[in-house]
Amino acid sequence: MLLHEFRPGRLVLGLTALTLAVVYGGDAVEAWATPWYGVVPVLCGGLGLAGLATWVAYRIRRRAARSRSSERTGAPASSNGNQAIR
C-alpha cells in the first residue's frame, strides 16, 4: 500500500534541483568552473520536463478514473435549472 500517489513532476523537479546543487557545489570547491548563466537552460529544461510529466500523469490518472467510473453519461445532475441531486 502506498502512502501517497506517485508524482513524476515533483521527481523531475527534485532531480533538477539536485543537479544544480551538485554543479554549483563543484564550482564552490573549485573542482570545475561553472558560468553563472549555466543555470538557465538546466532550470528551464527541468521545469518544462516537470510540467510535461505532470500533465502526462494527470491524463493517465483521469483516463483510469473514467474507465473505473460506474456512471457512463456525461449529463449533469440536472439540466432543467433545478439543483436537486439525482
Please describe the structure with a list of short key phrases separated by commas or semicolons:
elongated; 2 helices; about 90 residues; about 0% strand
Describe it:
The chain is mainly α. The model has no long low-confidence stretch (mean pLDDT 86). It is 59% helix and 0% strand. The protein has a domain at 8-64.
Report the uncertain regions: none
Count of helical regions: 2
Q: Give the N-terminus to C-terminus distance in angstroms.
A: 34 Å
C-alpha-based Rg, rounded: 22 Å
- Average predicted local confidence, pLDDT: 86
Q: Helix/strand/pairing class, anyone?
A: mainly alpha
Question: Order of helices and strands, N to C?
Answer: HH
- The dominant shape is elongated
Amount of helix = 55-70%
Q: For the report, how would you describe the main beta sheet?
A: none
| SS elements, strand count | 0
Instruction: Provide the β-strand percentage band.
Output: under 5%
Summarize the SSE layout with pairings.
Blueprint lengths: L7 H21 L10 H30 L18
Helix pairs in contact: 1-2
Please summarize what this structure is.
This protein has 86 residues and is mainly α. The protein has two helices and no strands. It has a domain of 57 residues.
